[in-house]
Amino acid sequence: MVDASPHGLGAMLIQEGREVSYASRSLTYVESRYSQTEREILAVVFGVEKFHIYLYGSTFTVITDHKPLLGIIGSCKPTLVRIDR
Predict the structure, then answer these.
(1) Is the distance from CB of 11 to CB of 22 less than 8 angstroms?
(2) Which residues are in the Reverse transcriptase RNase H-like domain (predicted)?
(3) What is the pLDDT of residues 35-53, one digit of tens each?
C-alpha cells in the first residue's frame, strides 16, 4: 500500500492482511513540485524499492487510492518522461 502527500511518501508492506513493515520519507523541494499523479507513482517506486528484498521473485499487488494511476500503469507508453525513468 502506498500513498503520497504534498510533503512526503509512505509505503506499507502487508502480508495476509497484516502489516509487516512501514516506510516513509519527506519529499525534496523539486519532488514537492511534481503533480499529484507524479508523486503517487513516485510513492509506488519508493515502496517497491524499499521492500524489494521481500518482493523480488514474488507476485504482489500495489494498493493506492489514486485511481488515475490505473490508466498510467496499465498502458504501454507512459505519458510523462519522469514516470518513464
Answers:
(1) yes
(2) 2-77
(3) 999 999 999 999 999 999 9
Please report how many Cα atoms fall inside a 13 Å half-sphere around the Cα of residue 69, on the Cβ side: 20
Total residue length of the chain: 85
Rounded Cα gap, residues 66 and 39, in angstroms: 10
Cell numbers for 1: 500500500
Using CA of residue 20, residue 28, residue 32, residue 30, what is the dihedral sign? negative
Whole-structure pTM over 0.85, yes or no? no
Q: Give the phi and the psi of residue 11 in degrees, each rounded to 5.
A: -145, 145
Pure H helices in the chain:
29-32, 36-50, 52-55, 68-74, 81-84
What tens digit of pLDDT does each residue of 1-29 get? Answer: 999 999 999 999 999 999 999 999 999 99
